[in-house]
Amino acid sequence: MNVMEESGLLVEKLEETLKHIKKLSMRTYLKFLPKIELHAHLNGSLNDKILKELGCEEDSIMQYKKLTQSIDKSDNTLQECFDVFKIAQNATKTQESVYLATKSVIEDFVRDGVVYLELRTTPRSEINMSKEEYIESVIRGIESLSGSKEKIFVKLILSIDRRHDKKTSEESLKIILKMREKYPNIIKGIDFSGNPNAGEFDAALFEEARKNGLKTSIHCAEIQNDDETKRILEFGPDRIGHATYLHPLYGGSQENWDLYCKKKIPVGNEPIQSLMFLCSL
Ligand SMILES: [Zn+2]
Predict the structure, then answer these.
(1) Span 31-68, pLDDT tens digits
(2) Cα dist. 70→75, 87, 198, 203, 272 in Å?
(3) Fewest beta carbons less than 10 Å away: which of 88, 134, 137, 190?
(4) Which residues, in sequence order, are bridge partners of residue 202?
(5) For residue range 240-250, what is the model confidence (pLDDT) as tens digits?
(6) Would you say 159 and 193 are in contact if contact means Cβ atoms under 8 Å apart?
(7) Ligand 1: distance of its center to the CA of 243 in Å?
(8) Distance 40 CA to ligand 1 centre (A)
């Protein structure tokens, strides 16, 4: 190898190293940049350490990690996403485990530089835990780390499960409103989430929630369902979530897109999908 070839190689290596350093410093910079997180699912945000502590098997932890930590989630099927939630739900069937899981999730967000977090979860009952106790446990986790003396403010959005019938959903709303009276500084809003192939949006129920002072942040257009997307947009939530099939280029209808542009409803999402969504505007 002659001098010219050697210096060429050196320059190449230097450029590669510089690229690497730049990348590292950007990561560090981004990590410490103060952030707000407006669309975090409690059951989709657990780390492997807490899953292990809560008694999860190694293969379930690997599956959970694979699906929640991959940057490109476009290949994940809906079923795979719900399998992830199932793993977390199985690990949090007691008040203590719900509390520990909530605390761990908030600690992770603090480490990532999040200063304002809106955590969302669906109240559920288990053999030894009522829906009220589930909510109390999440709030206990929030209260242990959130507030003016801490590095983060955490608010809670409680969800109505799409799989539930009208009566169960109405009961859930009553519980959410009752708990909001008790914790008005923490419980701020209501969501409609779960498997988008199940159930349908009930505008009257969410109107009732809105009349009682809850903000509405509704999962919308996660699958192609123009009728429901239209009803949600007409209702006019404070925010919508995901909106994957809202734009006509991604399977949405022009009518809904025009309605969305008129209503100007903010979209809350995971960063990579938000970026794709913004790019499509
Ligand atoms: Zn979501």
Answers:
(1) 777 889 999 999 999 999 999 999 998 988 988 888 77
(2) 10, 17, 26, 35, 11
(3) 137
(4) none
(5) 999 999 999 99
(6) yes
(7) 10
(8) 7
Three-class secondary structure of residue 78 per DSSP: helix
Domain with CATH 3.20.20.140 in the chain: 34-216
Domain 34-216 classified CATH 3.30.420.10? no
pLDDT at 276 over 50: no
Residues lying with their CB under 5 A of ligand 1, a single-atom ion: 241
Cα-to-centroid distance, 260 and ligand 1 (Å): 18
Q: What is the pTM of this model?
A: 0.83
Confirm whether 234 is a catalytic residue. Answer: no
SS3 sequence of 35-61: EEEEEEEHHHCCCHHHHHHCCCCHHHH
Q: How far is the CA of 218 from the centre of ligand 1 (A)?
A: 9
Contacts of 243-248 with C-beta under 8 Å, sequence gap 24+, read 243/267, 243/269, 243/277, 244/273, 245/221, 246/220, 246/221, 246/277, 247/277, 247/280, 247/281
Residue among 222, 228, 234, 255 flagged as catalytic: 222
